[in-house]
Specification:
33% of the residues lie in helices and 18% in strands. By secondary structure, it is α+β, with helices and mostly antiparallel strands. β5 and β6 form a beta hairpin. α7 packs antiparallel against α8 and α8 crosses α12.
Length: 477
């Protein structure tokens, strides 16, 4: 793949906050008032299950690289949107225009200086858009080379949806690409059938009828994973690029809410790795800046002093950091063929986690088999890291004081920490509860009535029952 990227149009970042990085008013010199939207943490870890009969997607856009003149650089422009919005107010139309402009940035994040190609391997990746009202939407993108003769730039098909299910949309894109090979006009009846279909419950399958000339009516089966909590995650990608020890070092760094950058040569690799790393934190959620692929015009985001979890395309990384800029940072080069993956690190990554629990995590990761299915790997990894949180902070509910069970509570931090007998565990927990991800988690607990519902609560209950059973056996003998 031959292309060149250059950040020639970097505008100012309007606002960097602890929760969101605003991408508003990123002005292009050729197009004034080009406004994007917020980019933040992935709803993949907190999206929740959509309501029954929820649409598969909100809309599909086709983004094509075009030139104003023969010698001008390529610009990504939306050439088609399905379905088209009718009867929008001026304010709604302005909001839609801003969202579409943001989408063009994320569909072609490398920059505008592309060299036309004769060959291009299609790639799939994802990103997250957060609107000014806090509404989060997932962008799923398939880039491919349109049929034609001679050299030409690739185009992107982007589906925007409230649903977070990477595998499901990858299969949908397979059907979109197959129809694109015949005619653009064949894509839209398929997408209309998809919009009319109810989104399946976990483990269920929906069948979409679609007519293709010369093939007749086809039935496309789309099955939602049974474990919907992990339907946007593929932990297998972590083992492909990182050793077990490196996975734990990355995990420890995220727990301390540091500045973390992943570098790769494939956009799909970046988006999958960042979503997998964020999912390791479940039931907690990364609360700071999260951009799975940083567009070239937003590279100054890397200069922010606040925590972030970012993916950067390899060719746009040169010269971004000086040696003095990488303090308190972890930079992971996924494209490196060398044994050393970390271009920068703090140095304490191996000592952040309590030693006994770190060894348990390491043992669990080593139990992965080469022939394990993605579902089996997801289950193994999720179980191991949830168990880590159960054993460190799973006693939190006993330290939320409520006047009545249905009333808001107050978390007792001091007694919570003092109740931990193991000194190394206590030191870790003392550091962890100072993070924003724990703060947001416990605020939600305080606001909600006392409850044993939820995945994390069930795992805590299972662990407590296992301990009680072990105690009963010990006293019996």
């Amino acid at each position: 793949m031959s292309r060149q990227s250059e950040a020639r149009q970097p505008g100012p970042t309007k606002r960097l906050s602890s929760l969101f990085v605003s991408l508003q008013r990123k002005l292009s010199r050729d197009r004034a008032d080009r406004v994007s939207t917020h980019a933040s943490q992935p709803e993949t870890t907190e999206a929740g299950s959509p309501a029954p009969n929820h649409f598969f997607f909100e809309f599909l856009v086709v983004v094509r690289l075009q030139q104003k003149t023969k010698d001008s650089p390529y610009e990504p422009l939306v050439i088609y949107k399905f379905p088209k919005e009718i009867g929008l107010s001026p304010l709604q139309r302005e909001g839609e225009e801003k969202s579409l402009q943001a989408i063009t940035l994320f569909c072609f994040p490398e920059g505008v200086n592309w060299i036309p190609l004769t060959q291009y391997q299609s790639e799939t990746f994802s990103f997250v858009l957060t609107e000014t009202d806090g509404t989060r939407r997932n962008g799923f993108c398939r880039r491919l080379l349109p049929h034609g003769r001679g050299k030409r730039p690739p185009e992107a098909f982007c589906i925007v949806s409230k649903v977070a299910c990477f595998g499901l949309f990858s299969k949908i894109f397979d059907e979109v690409e197959r129809r694109r090979e015949k005619s653009m006009a064949m894509i839209y009846p398929f997408m209309q059938s998809l919009r009319e279909a109810p989104f399946p419950e976990p483990g269920e399958t929906v069948q979409i009828k679609s007519f293709i000339p010369e093939s007749g009516t086809e039935i496309i089966s789309l099955t939602r994973p049974l474990e919907s909590r992990l339907e946007h995650v593929d932990f297998q990608i972590l083992f492909r690029y990182l050793s077990n020890q490196e996975i734990l070092q990355v995990f420890a760094s995220t727990l301390m809410e540091r500045r973390i950058v992943f570098i790769a040569e494939e956009l799909g690799t970046l988006s999958q790795v960042l979503h997998a790393v964020a999912a390791l934190l479940s039931p907690f959620t990364w609360q700071h800046t999260f951009i799975s692929t940083v567009p070239t015009v937003l590279m100054e985001v890397l200069m922010a002093p606040t925590p972030y979890l970012l993916g950067v395309y390899k060719n746009t990384m040169d010269g971004v950091f000086d040696k003095g800029d990488v303090d308190n940072m972890l930079i992971v080069d996924l494209s490196s063929k060398e044994k050393e993956r970390f271009l920068a690190r703090v140095g304490d990554e191996d000592s952040i986690l309590p030693e006994t629990l770190r060894n348990e995590l390491l043992e669990a990761l080593c139990a992965k088999k080469d022939h394990s299915t993605p579902e089996e790997i997801n289950t193994l990894v999720s179980k191991a890291f949830v168990s880590f949180f159960v054993k460190t902070v799973g006693h939190y509910s006993a330290h939320v004081k409520r006047s009545k069970s249905q009333q808001p509570g107050i978390f007792q931090r001091k007694t919570f920490c003092k109740s931990i007998e193991n000194k190394s565990h206590q030191q870790f927990v003392t550091n962890f509860i100072a993070t924003q991800m724990f703060d947001v988690f416990i605020q939600d607990v305080e606001r909600q009535p006392a409850s044993n519902d939820g995945f994390f609560c069930r795992k805590i209950a299972e662990y407590e029952e296992t301990k009680k059973e072990a105690d009963r056996k010990r006293w019996k003998f």
